[in-house]
TrEMBL record:
It comes from the Eukaryota. This is Endothelin-converting enzyme, putative. InterPro entries: MetalloPept_cat_dom_sf, Peptidase_M13. PROSITE patterns: NEPRILYSIN. GO terms for biological process: proteolysis. GO terms for molecular function: metalloendopeptidase activity. SUPFAM superfamilies: Metalloproteases ('zincins'), catalytic domain. It comes from Ixodes scapularis (Black-legged tick).
Length: 50
């Protein structure tokens, strides 16, 4: 689960991308799934999604 593909099909975001991108910016997600700091699913610079 800790990876992200390009995520665009026919000019639109895929359902997977719509789900994964917000999760990668949630500290609770990274902690729960033990994603390493700086990894694709736990970037050092996070955006506030909500």
């Amino acid at each position: 689960m800790c990876e992200l593909s390009e995520g665009i099909e026919h000019g639109r975001l895929t359902s997977r991308t719509k789900c994964v991108v917000p999760l990668r910016h949630e500290a609770n997600f990274a902690h729960a799934f033990k994603c390493y700091a700086g990894s694709r699913m736990n970037p050092e610079q996070k955006c506030s999604v909500w």
